[in-house]
Amino acid sequence: MKKYTSIFLLFLILAGCNPLNGPNETQIPQSGKVLVENIEYEMTGGEYKWIGKNAEARRLDVAPPSHLADEIESILTEKNSQIEIVIELTPELTVYLWNEDERLKEITLKDNQFTAPSAGGRYIYEVRSKWINGEASFVFVIEVN
């Protein structure tokens, strides 16, 4: 019995050290997806900062989300559709709604999801993701019918 307990404890320790449980200094998550009506779309990467054991990576020369939105194809969706944010390595997420000039407000997330607006129009979203070793931003645009 003692032998099995030791093996089980060793397994738990090794599982806790697994890099899949969180980012390490060599992983810089630079992609994210958004699910709209169960269809997956790639978000556009913005700025990022990553601090590793031997180096630091930064990308700060990115235009604000409102300017990036001009280059992004809108995701067509219906009013009140569920939108889910999917980014590898499970970061802490904050989502902001933008207009053409500035950040308007923070969007409330529940299980990394929120509901599309009930009014038709074009909406710009910035997703800020934060891990222990850094942070990254992503942008997507929806067009609500």
Would you spell out the secondary-structure blueprint of this structure?
Elements: H1 2-16, E1 32-36, E2 39-42, E3 44-51, E4 56-59, H2 65-68, E5 75-77, E6 82-87, E7 92-98, E8 103-107, E9 113-115, E10 121-130, E11 134-144
Parallel strand pairs: 5-11
Antiparallel strand pairs: 1-2, 1-6, 3-4, 3-11, 6-9, 7-8, 7-10, 10-11
The class by helix and strand makeup works out as: mainly beta
Shape: globular
In terms of DSSP E residues, the strand content is over 45%
Give helix % range: 10-25%
Using only C-alpha atoms, the radius of gyration works out to 19 Å
Estimate the mean pLDDT confidence: 83
Number of helices: 2
Order of helices and strands: HEEEEHEEEEEEE
Q: How many individual β-strands?
A: 11
Largest sheet properties: 7 strands, mixed
